[in-house]
Specification:
With 238 residues, the chain is of the alpha+beta class. Strands 3, 4, 5, 6, 9, 10, 11 and 12 form an eight-stranded mixed beta sheet that branches. The chain has a five-stranded antiparallel beta sheet with strand order 2-1-7-8-13, with no helix packed on it. Strand 9 (137-146) and strand 10 form a beta hairpin. The chain has four helices and 13 strands.
């Protein structure tokens, strides 16, 4: 369900989405983004009508959240529940966003033979998913601004929508993120569309399902690992 992904560097995002320069301290490409990380997000600036690049915590904290601790496992939102659950319904209607990505990881249940004992061992093999040609893309997401009780500054946070896996993604996992084609991004960000069912239905109907994937090293399981070798093809041992 998209618990790790590859985030493009700031210059890549600015070129691909035709943005102006964001700041003088650009963030680098990250190969192993984990939930609760601060990530780049694209949202519509309603004052100017232009797309702006902001940073947000990956793990949504609703505007109405009262607890001191953020909700757990709120980095993903199921598309089939989004229009009815309070956690997602409001943001889906009023504050949709794009989450730039270069790929994501999913884990496939596999069986291997232990060469020492001959025992059949079950394990999970990570796979890296990307678009043909390694083109950048955006996850369909939502963003919220939360104000802690003891802090004057509002905190931006976000979540990625997921769907039932279709196409090549279903070979590995039963869920996949909602990937928007370029032509569907404007409608996803359109503030005139406030019906959550309409917004999600359109995203699912146009969502990208033709992706490529290959097995990668188990090093991606370690949150501290973050280098290009993580997305390189792994030669599987039988």
């Amino acid at each position: 369900m998209c618990g790790r992904y590859v985030s493009p560097e700031e210059a890549e995002i600015e070129r691909f989405w035709h943005l102006g320069r964001h700041n003088s301290n650009p963030f680098p490409r990250r190969y192993n983004v984990t939930p609760t990380s601060i990530i780049p997000v694209l949202r519509l600036d309603r004052a100017t009508g232009e797309i702006e690049l902001v940073n947000a915590r990956w793990g949504l904290i609703p505007t109405w959240w009262k607890d001191a601790k953020p909700p757990r496992t709120s980095h993903n939102a199921r598309s089939d529940e989004a229009a009815t659950k309070p956690m997602w319904k409001g943001p889906l209607a009023r504050s949709r966003c794009l989450i730039p990505a270069a790929g994501w990881y999913e884990w496939k249940q596999v069986e291997r033979t232990d060469p020492a004992t001959g025992e059949i061992i079950k394990s999970k093999q990570p796979h890296f998913f990307h678009l043909p040609g390694d083109q950048l893309f955006a996850f369909a997401g939502v963003v919220a601004l939360w104000k802690p009780a003891n802090d004057a500054d509002r905190q931006a946070s976000c979540a990625v929508f997921t769907r039932e896996a279709v196409g090549p993604a279903a070979e590995v996992h039963d869920r996949m993120p909602v990937v928007l084609p370029k032509g569907a991004e404007a409608a996803w960000l359109d503030p005139q569309i406030t019906d959550p069912v309409q917004a999600m239905s359109a995203a699912l109907a146009k969502g990208v399902i033709e992706v490529e994937h290959h097995a990668v090293s188990n090093r991606v399981n370690t949150a501290a690992a973050d280098d290009r070798q993580l997305i390189e093809k792994e030669i599987l041992q039988r």
